[in-house]
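name: query_chain
kind: protein
chains: 1
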Amino acid sequence: MSLLSAFKSRNSKDELPLMPVREFVVFPHTMIPLFITYPAGIKALEEALKRDQRLFAACRKDTTNDEDTYPTGTVAHIVQQLKLPDGSYRVVLHGEYRGRIGTSSLLDQVRLVTVQPIQGIPVLEGESAEIEALMRAVQRSFNQFAELSKKISTEVLAAVERAENAEKLCNVAANALPIKIEKKLELLEIDDSKKRLQTLLEHLELENEIIALQRKITGKVKSRMEKTQREYILNEQLKEINKELGRDTGEDEFTEIEKALEAKNPPEEVLSKAKKELNRLKKLQSLSPEAGVLRTYLEWIIDLPWNEATTDSTDLALAEEILNRDHYDMKKPKERIIEYLAVRQLTSQIKGPILCFVGPPGTGKTSLGKSVARALGRNFVRISLGGVRDEAEIRGHRKTYVGALPGKIIQSMRRAKSINPVFLLDEIDKLSSDFRGDPASALLEVLDPEQNSTFTDHYLEVPYDLSKVLFIATANSLHTIPHPLLDRMEVIDIPGYGEGEKLQIAKRFLIPKQLEEHGLAQASVKFQDEAIRDIIRYRTMESGVRGLEREIAHCIRKLAKSAVEQGYGKEKAIGDFKKTIRLTTLDTLLGKRKYKHDVVYKEQRIGVCYGLAWTETGGTILPIETVTFEGSGELIMTGNLGDVMKESARTALSYLRSISPKITLAIEDIGKTDFHIHVPEGAIPKDGPSAGITLAVSLLSTLSQRPVKGGFAMTGELTLTGRVLPIGGLKEKLLAAIRNGLTDVIIPKGNMDDLEELDRDIREALIIHSIEQATEAFELLFEPSIFT
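structure:
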């Protein structure tokens, strides 16, 4: 029997003082120095000294109770002890064997425990070779750990090498490993020697891998630092060599920056800030990251226009000629630009106006901005705001951020190279906002004439004067523009074009442009008016002219292909190529017509009438259908209608109830009837109050079983007392009526003044009826009269 076995068998039933050990695990076969300052530990130590100097050391759990320990620990012998003046002890313990707490008792405030030794699972005959292999693997891995960490003493290394069994090897190696308390407790508790060696080997391999990785990272950092230091030394040597040879030195860079700043002559505040940053740059190493940031900042200050301005044209006739040459019609915006030029000649103190061109797509808003710049003799810059959702896109980032830049406003001013450009803010109604801020709110300062003289970009950190800039914003709709932003702009409507206007635009602008772009400018290519009108009516459905230009380009590409196939441009001169686009040749060039305009029934129908609606892409026809059936007065509405339009339908029905005695309709009949109103093309959302009169006519037609007179369309908001209120988008709605072959349009009397601003061909293409009361529309649309 071994000495340890005899010792265990002799003392396994003895009670030992329980000493809780803080943040430490005591292993057998190791010498452990401890500093005991807490009461429970001191009492257990003193009790052990009274007995045979043996105690049970167990790791304390992470609680406030010192006696709350893990059940597994080590029976240890006190080798040395020294009591200090404050009552605490310094001791050295020698771990003897592992054990688990059995019973527990309390004696004079000292916890005594019986210990059940951990005997370990006996090794089977076939496993001895595997145990030996694991032991060698652990010893080899431990030696590697000692070599990498440089923190293992020679005594511990020797103990690991001399360990004659798995128990001792595991105890000595585990005690030296810098692993967490939980993992050490796991190694202390395992009974199976094979499993214990495997677990220990895993921890050793992981620690070796971590140390190797740390050394690799440290080596890279050291190498990088050495490279930076080497470059710095070489650069300093190069400076000294250049000085000796009389060459330009780094000082000239700072001198050039100072001269450039003086030449720019920015405001005093800007110059002071720039010089301060330049002084900081002089004190920095040339290769430091901050030096790069400051250089970029100073380059922006130097590149921006601070005093450079173009001279505005003073020839009003020439400016008007340029505007008329580039764009057809558009009287209002052209007049506004000419007015601005006239005022500029009288006073130079006028601030740049902030205009907002609003109209359907393809009506020339963006290109008009370029024409305004040419007419004024100014530089032109444009930024697209569609989809911008980050406030920093407008105001820029703080220059402390990596890769920071000024916002789009300052970037565009640098491109403009003058302080008074024409600045186009395209698609201002498409701004978005999210957690990164609200760009529309950032634009408030830009578009406020009282504030934009001191616009401050986050990157520049100094005020920049935008008061001399002529800002022009473009939008398809005003509904999505925040009111505070809209309030700062002068809104100018650019409505859609009529057929006559599109014809002139095609002949004057689109066809020559496309012939030039497709290499047929010298050829004799003509479009008959009937062919152009056919493209407008049956091959495009828009308020603008983008689709018209695409169809014209399609025709010209076909002609270009035909010309090349016939040898023009090589054997034959392109100037000899002649072609006329006729109505009869359109189907060959463009295919069949795309739009039939058959939404309007040719025959009169009960419950069917036509409203007129405005959309962001122009006007459109709004068919409304109503049927009735026996029920309880319920009103059913389908067709993807919005809340406002549903309210208009309820208002119309209530109005008809109120006047039913006058139109031979019994109120009780209405109460026993269900109404179903449907607006076709249900996939398209529809809303707005201007369909009120149309809904009332459709309901009345169904109730009276009389068809609505054909060829009519109508628009107007209906009140509960029958008044018809004015609406917006009149021109687009009238153009939609013309496109769909309608001859008569009913509009509110309050919109009659708007007719004066419409082109003559639009007014002559339709018979306009103005009404104040819904009953006037009923008299026009029903024959014979429905009134009693």
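note: The domain at 608-781 is CATH 3.30.230.10 (Ribosomal Protein S5; domain 2).
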